[in-house]
Each structure stands twice: as C-alpha cells, then as structure tokens.
Amino acid sequence: MFSEQKKRPFFKRKMGIVLLSVLAVIIIAALSGFLYVKSALGPVDQKSKQTINIHIPNGTSVREIAGILKDNGLISNDAIFTYYAKYKKASGFKAGYFHLKQTMDADTLIKKKLTSGGTDYAFQLVIPEGRQLSDIAAIIANQTNFSAKEVEAKLDDPDFIQTLMKKYPKTVTSQVNGKQVKHPLEGYLFPATYPFYREDESLETIIETMIKQTDQYVKTYEKKDMKKNMKTCPYMMC
User: Fold this and answer.
1) Which of 94, 104, 174, 194 fits 125 for a cystine, CB–CB 3.0-4.6 Å?
2) Domains and CATH numbers, the chain
3) What are 131-186's pLDDT values in tens digits?
4) pTM
C-alpha cells in the first residue's frame, strides 16, 4: 500500500513532464509552421531591383498562376500561395503580361497586380535623357535575359555597327568610328519609352529600335531646317 502511494506522485510527475513535452512540441511545430507560411507569403528578395516579366494566358487557373510565379522566382511555395489566394477569396485574375518584382509579397501580387490586369507588351524599356551607354545597358539587362556585358558587347560590335550604318546612313555615320570614340553608339540611343511584344526579342532588335527612333528625329529635324532655309532662300541657290 505504501509503495503504491509512493508511486503515484512519481507517476503524476512523469505524466506531467510528458504532457508538457508534448505541448512544447505542438507549440514549436505550430510556431515553426506559422513562420514558414509567413516566409512563403513574403517577398522572395527584398533587395532585388530586377523586373521579372511573366505572361498569364487566358483561362489559367490559380494553381497554374502559382506555378508560373514559382518558376519565375516570384514566390517560394506555389501550394501555399494557391491556398492563400483561395483563403482570401481572390478572383478575377487577369490574362496578359505582368511586370513584377521579387520585392512584392503575396498580397501585393494578388491585390495590386494579378487582379488589376496585365499589359499587351512583354516588357518595356524606359530610357531617361542624359544616360550614358553603360546606364542604358544596365536598364536593358534589368528587363531582359541579357547581361549588361552582353549588351555592351553588342553595342560595340563592329559588324553590328556596320549594319546600322548601312540602314541609317544619315544618322549612324562614319564619325562613330573615330579614333577618339570609345563607344560608337554613345548618344545614339534615343531617350523614350519602348514597349516590346515578344519575350525573346533579340538584342539587335532592341538596340535598332532606339537607333530608328533617333533616325526619325534626325529626319524630322532636317525637314524643319530645310523648310526654314526655304523661307529664307526659296531658290536653294543662296
């Protein structure tokens, strides 16, 4: 009888320890799960400055959209994103091209982007005034799969420059190959906003689009200058 009474407190203490251990495991597991889900719904890279362009076809399901986001490094877990979108009762996901960043969390992707409608262009280049060629190369690299070094190499490629000289003789003249010229196309890429409609647009096409814009500007300026001269000297013999 005495031995049984002695065992009971020990048994209770042992059960208490077991219950506390189980409770601790449950709390740790719940906390770990919460932190994991929170991390999965947060930004993939808060320091990233790159814009990632994706295309959502018509009729794409939420699960398929999550897969596209995961494949492009915009979310870390497609299953959690899918369940979260359903939990938020998110609907009305639009088709089109979307220009997203890894700094966006799940709420931003859902509320401000994917349900607000995409664009009809695959990516867009915004070239501000006064930027050097190296800056423009970085802008192109940021919006495409080309590296800045690849862009700079193409901009300085003699064969490519010869092609441009033949296509745009009034704009890309022999002066670009002067001995003192470090980068032949420095100052020839017109500052503007350029939408491109193919995800795999070639580097040649991207650069030539800017050169073409410069060429159009030169021709327009020449016409205005010619009209001005005609008013001053209408017989072109002055």
Assistant:
1) 194
2) 51-114 (3.30.1490.480), 123-232 (no CATH)
3) 999 999 999 999 999 999 999 999 999 999 999 999 999 899 999 888 888 899 99
4) 0.62
Asked if residue 101 lies in contact with residue 48, where contact means CB atoms within 8 angstroms, the answer is yes
DSSP lists the bridge partners of residue 193 as 126
Residue 101 pairs with which residues in a beta bridge? 51
- The pLDDT value given to residue 95: 84
Beta bridge partner(s), residue 100: 52
Token pair for residue 165?
């000289």
Q: pLDDT band at 53, cuts 50/70/90? A: confident
Residues 156, 162, 167, 172, CA torsion sign:
positive
Tally of residues, the chain: 238
**pLDDT at 9 (0 to 100):** 61
CA gap 145, 210 in Å, rounded: 18
Q: Mind giving me the DSSP string for the chain?
A: -HHHHHHHHHHHHHHHHHHHHHHHHHHHHHHHHHHHHHHHHS-S-TT---EEEEEE-TT--HHHHHHHHHHTTS-S-HHHHHHHHHHTT---PPPEEEEEETT--HHIIIIIIITT--BSSSEEEE--TT--HHHHHHHHHHHSSS-HHHHHHHHT-HHHHHHHHHH-TTTS-GGGG-TT-SSTTTT-S--SEEEES-TT--HHHHHHHHHHHHHHHHHHHHHHHHHHHHHH-TTS--
96-142 pLDDT tens trace: 888 899 999 999 998 877 877 778 788 999 999 999 999 999 999 99
* Contact between 63 and 81 (Cβ < 8 Å): no
